[in-house]
Structure formats: C-alpha cells, structure tokens
Amino acid sequence: MKRIGASLGALAALACVLLAVALAAPRVLGLTPFVVLSGSMEPTYPVGSLVYVRSVDASELRVGDPVTFTLEGREAVATHRVIEVDAESASLRTQGDANDEPDGSPVQFASVIGSPAFCVPLVGYAVSWVSRPPGLFVVAAAIACLFVWALVSSRPFGRKARSARDVA
C-alpha cells in the first residue's frame, strides 16, 4: 500500500513539474505559449499542440514566415503564414497552410504578437483542460487526495509496533 501511494505521489509530482516547465520555463526565455484550436495550420501545427511564440518586429517578417496575431475586433489569436508584406500600409496578408483561400482582412503590424519558435504536439489539450474550472478542480482535488494518502499511508494503524523488549 505504501509503494502504491509513493508511486502515485511521484507520478503526480512529475506531472506537476512537467506542466510547470512546459508553461513557466519558456516564459523566462521570452516565449509565450498558445494552444492550437483549429486545423488551419496542419500539418505544421496540429490541433491540440502548444505553440511557443517569440516576439518579433512585424516589419522584419517575410513571405513564408509563420506569424501569430490577434484577430481584428476580437480577443482571439491566430497563427497563419505570411503570404504578402505591405510595408506602406504596415500590414500583412496571411493564410493558413490548410486553407484554400487567404484570410479575409490584412493583419496590421500592431496586431502581431510574434512568430512561433516551436510547438509541442498534444500538450495543448492538457493545458486547455487545466485552464478551465472543471479541469483545475480535478487537478486540485487529485493533489489534495494524494497529499492525504501520503499522510495516512505513512502512519502505522492498529496496535503500535512492539519493540524487542515488549516481546520478550
């Protein structure tokens, strides 16, 4: 029983450390994580991936570069590929790799967040789930249960263990 508790505790601790590293370490390096929610950039960035974006000067982006930007008039974020740069109007034309048509409106340089440095497939699903109240509740409850289990399993139950002197 103690081994099971120790193993579960170790697995939970490892999962927490990996999630913290996946989210915090890149931020220290100046990267911002975003979860890929649509298939518009597949296969480059599959749905459920965690894309790490580094800040860039929008005027330095070139045709073919992937770019992450805020959608005009919305709080949503998209990552698509630059298909045209218009320095005069300080805007970009973009298109998702899996899309047949370019995006409807140009992206203003001011809307550019950055350019993806790398992505980690599937991790975005976990981050997205934990970021919502039900997932956060389940994780907090699991950690609390493992903490209680660790406390309970480390205590002897029933009669106290007899010392050699008590047995004789």
Automatic annotation (TrEMBL):
The keyword Membrane applies. The chain crosses the membrane at residues 135-152. One of its GO terms (biological process) is signal peptide processing. It is an enzyme of class 3 (hydrolase). PROSITE patterns: PROKAR_LIPOPROTEIN. Keywords: Membrane, Transmembrane, Transmembrane helix. One of its GO terms (molecular function) is signal peptidase activity. It holds the Pfam family Peptidase_S26. The keyword Cell inner membrane does not apply. Residues 14-82 form the Peptidase S26 domain. GO terms for cellular component: membrane. Its EC number is 3.4.21.89. It is found in: Membrane. InterPro entries: LexA/Signal_pep-like_sf, Peptidase_S26, Peptidase_S26B. This is Signal peptidase I. It comes from Gordonibacter pamelaeae.
